Amino acid sequence: MQFRPLPILSIVTIGALILLIGLGVWQLERREEKHALLAEIAHRMIAPAESVEALLIEEDTAAFRHATAEGVFENAKEAYVFAPRSDESGTHLGYKVVTPLRLTAGALIMVDRGWVPMEQRNPAARIKGQIETPVAIRGVLRPTVSPGMFTPDPNVVEHIWYVRDILGMAAALGLKPATSLYLEASTAAQGGPVPISDAPEIPDNHLQYAITWFALALVLVIIYFVFHHSRGRLRFGR
User: Fold this and answer.
1) Structural domain count of the chain
2) Residue 12 pLDDT grade (very low, low, confident, very high; cuts 50, 70, 90)
3) Which of 73, 93, 74 is nearest to 83 (CA)?
4) 37 sits in which H/E element
5) Mean pLDDT throughout 11-24?
6) Is the pLDDT of residue 107 over 90?
7) What is the domain extent for residue 168?
8) 108 bridge partner residues
9) How many Å apart are CA 190 and CA 180, to the nearest integer?
10) 87 belongs to a structural domain
């Protein structure tokens, strides 16, 4: 075999190859970290429920824990998250109702009380569910959701958002919650929103990404040698 590599092309190719392989290795490392996070979340979700106040002492480990809360809803400042639902009968337009809850101890948290159809977004259409007396509820603490690049802007006047952006809601409504976590309620109120538990949406695509980077590295090597062969700089045999 005779091989006469082009110097500049070889340097560029080696640099690109190091970068591609490095990105693939990085994705594998991220995959290990993600699996550790998923295992931690699974552990938290089977732990016994504790009061919100107790869990927020260690707020960094409170997300995805089952929690209990007692307090009074501040119904006048509820917000809505556009959330279509699909079932065997079709797609139904509606909203998640997010309401501030003034805890007995005085702190404020945001509660995702559940889903209502579009025609019941107006609180006047669900008076029985607008509880004014102290309540005791259960649910799961979840982290706030930051708007993405393509998330529509909220309609602050109508209190409508498109993700559960707790910090954005609080700022727009003049609230100061004790945490950016929100309580996704599992306790239903007669005439009120229907609690719906969403599975944690934590993508785990790092293996696919790693394979992609390694495949690109392999393709680059093949192109490199094919190019040299086409220029007569790589010959096999005598």
Assistant:
1) 2
2) very high
3) 93
4) helix 7-45
5) 96
6) yes
7) 65-185
8) 102
9) 28
10) yes
Q: For residue 86, count CB atoms less than 10 angstroms from its CB and return exposed for 0-12, middle for 13-18, buried for 19 or more.
A: exposed
Q: Is 21 exposed, middle or buried (0-12, 13-18, 19+ CB in 10 A)?
A: middle
Tokens of 126: 């669900």
Q: Which long-range contacts (CB under 8 A, 24 or more apart) does 2-7 make?
A: 2/234, 2/235, 3/228, 3/233, 3/234, 3/235, 4/228, 4/233, 4/234, 5/228, 5/233, 6/228, 6/231, 6/233
- With a cut of 90, say whether residue 48 has pLDDT above it: yes
Do 177 and 115 sit in the same domain of this protein?
A: yes
Contact (CB, 8 A) for 115 and 92: no
182-185 and 135-142 strand pairing: antiparallel
Same domain, 165 and 93: yes
Q: What's the CA gap between 161 and 165, in Å, rounded?
A: 8
- Any idea what DSSP says for residue 180? S
Tell me the pairing of strands 234-235 and 2-3.
Answer: antiparallel
Contact 95, 38 (CB under 8 A): no
10 Å Cβ neighbour count for 181?
A: 24
Question: In sequence order, what E strands does the chain have?
Answer: 2-3, 50-51, 66-73, 79-82, 85-87, 90-92, 94-103, 108-117, 135-142, 160-161, 182-185, 234-235
Q: Tell me if 169 sits within 8 A of 110, measured CB to CB.
A: yes
Write out the two tokens for 205: 């695509």
